[in-house]
Description:
- Helix content is about 60%, strand content about 5%.
- Strands 2-1-3-4 form a 4-stranded mixed beta sheet, with helices on both faces.
- It contains 9 helices and 4 strands.
- The protein is an alpha+beta fold.
- It folds into 2 domains: about 1-75, Glutaredoxin (3-Layer(aba) Sandwich); about 90-220, Glutathione S-transferase Yfyf (Class Pi), Chain A, domain 2 (Up-down Bundle).
- The mean pLDDT is about 95.
- It has helices spanning about 10-20, 40-45, 65-75, 90-115, 115-120, 130-145, 160-175, 185-195, 200-230; strands spanning about 1-5, 25-30, 55, 60-65.
- The N and C termini lie far apart (about 60 Å).
- The longest helix is centred in the last third of the chain and has 33 residues, at about 200-230.
Amino acid sequence: MKFYYHPQSPACQPVWMVLKELGIEYEAIELNLWSGNVDKDELFSVNPYGKVPALKDGNICLGESRAVSIYLCSKYEAADKDKPLYPKDVDSIARINMELFADLDSIVAVQKYLNIGAVFSGKAKGPCNEHFPEVKKHIDHMEKVLSNQSYLAGDHLTILDFCKLNLLGMLDMAGYTEWVEYPKIVEWRDRMSKLSYYEECHAAGFKANRQIYTAGNAKYDELEKNRDTKN
C-alpha cells in the first residue's frame, strides 16, 4: 500500500490517523505540491484530481480523505470490533456519513474566515471577522453534540473525530483562543491529544501552518508599510 500525502495538509491527516489507529502497514510518499518538484503523472495515475491524500492499495487507487478513510476501515477493520472507527450497520453508517459530509461545510467556512489563500501568499490579511459567525455555528454544534457523549459519533473514537480536528487546527492558525464557552470541546480535544500519533499526524503540521499564516500576515503588513512610505 502506498500513501501519498503531505504532513501539513489537513485533508491528509484523517487518513494518516486511520492508518496509524488500525496498524496498517504502508509506504509513506511525501509530496510537496507547492514546490513544483512532484511527479504529477504518478500522482494523477493514483488520484485523477491530482491532489493528496491519494492511496494505492493493490489495484485500488483512491483520493479524497473521507472516501479513503471509509475504504480503509471497511476493508481492514475487524468486522466484530466492539468500537469500530467506522460502523458496520446501515443506520449508523447513514448517521456518520451525514456528519462527515456536513463537516465539509465547516472547512469552507473556516477557510473563508482565515482568508487562507491570500494570507499564505502575503496578498491580504486574516482572519476576516465578518466570516466568524458561520464558523461559530459549527463549533456551537460540536459543543452541543459533545454535551451528551464523549466523541462526535457516540461513546468511542471514529473517523469523524479525526476529520473534526481540522476545524480546531485551522482556528489555531487564526490565533483563536476563546474556548471558555466550549468546555466539552476542550475536554474532547484533550482526549484526542492523548492518542500516540496525535502530535505526528496532526499537531506538528498545524504548528507549521500557523507559522506560514503568521508570516503571510507579516509580509502583507510590510507591503502596506512600504506603500505608505512611498505615498
